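Progress report, Aim 2. The chain analyzed during this reporting quarter is listed below.
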Amino acid sequence: MANLFSTRATKGLLKVGEVYCPKNGEFPSFREAAGTAYLNKIVTNVPEDDFGLLSIVLTIFSFLPGSIVHWIVKACANAQNNPSDGVIPSTLRLLNLGLKGLCYAVYYSEFTNPNYTGRKPLDIIDYHVNRVTN
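Predicted structure tokens for the chain:
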């Protein structure tokens, strides 16, 4: 079975992305620039179990108000500083790693929102992908 995000999961990712990548100076907000249209291409090789669970979490986030999503994401980020090996801090750290990784991969990829006309995040940081093919 192919890894395909539902529309709801994509909406949840947009909410999470606004916490990790808000509009800041020259940088566009996650919602403006992120290439969520290419999201399914990016997650092609993610293991099915991991993808299924992440998709469920993002779908749940799509139903929550933005302030609650913001609080949850900040709690996950703060768990990085918690030395406990308990179930909750460990789970929050893993969730933070997965959400942050996906958000940054979508935001800083060469695939930006087709409707976005401003400077791309990669151009702002002056990074250019050099792909060599044989």
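The radius of gyration is 15 Å. The chain has a mean pLDDT of 88. These observations will guide the mutagenesis work planned for the next reporting period.
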